[in-house]
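HUMAN: Can I see a protein plus its fold?

ASSISTANT:
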Amino acid sequence: MYRFLLTPRWLGILALTLVAATVMVLLGNWQLSRYQERAAINERIDETATLAPVPVDQVLPRPGGAAGTVGQPPPAGAAWTRVTVTGRYDSANVILIRSRTVQSRVGFEVLTPLRLADGSAVLVDRGWIPPLPGGSALARPEIPAVPSGEVTVVGRVHLSESKPDAVTRRDGRIETRRIAVPALARELPYPVYSAYLLLDEQTPAADPAFSAIPIRHENDWQNGGYVVQWWLFAALTLVGFGWAARREARGDAPDGDRNRDRAAGPARRDEPAAAPSP
């Protein structure tokens, strides 16, 4: 009944079906790994939100190199940990991160090195401020002055952003579009910790002109949906092959398809031999 499956045409269809289903399963597996990675990040963000902060050097390796260098890369699991650190802001090396969006408005994030007693520094993202009123989105804002004297910061460890952008100086001020700590450290006259901090709390209090940088959860549900989609497509591909084969076996296929399969398949034993030519 299903001998037609051994014909070259149906063997080719079966091979294409298996290849397509395998590719779809692999794509689903890749989306599953992305879902697990993003879900782990979201769990980490929620888990650390209520934990007491720990000293920064308990989470990030202390930089001990020359000026303009960074410490060892952050260990696994360092991201989003709440840390505390005390030092003095370096007002001469404030860094503007342009084209940053908060609540649908484009403005600047302001990073300021916090100099520690050992001579190293950690970059602190003090928050977001809008451009000058009436100007373009790149119009440099008035930056609130840093507090004088010692400052104690509580913040979340944030890793360097990917795809670093060029770091420039405009009117003596450091500017860039991406927060890549190694690139920024090369502009500074001291060694720098390998990650930066998103400011949560500050003593003395931060200037109210700053808006806090929102901590966004990863969009893991979308990857979860892609997992179901690709695996469902793989299953439907196999079911579709079975449905087409059953339709062929029951004689529901178009006459042209059946005739091609018969012509391609072995001759049946009960077919009469061709009559000899006269």
About this structure: Residues 267-271 have pLDDT under 50 and may be disordered. Helices lie at 8-48, 181-185, 220-249, 255-264.
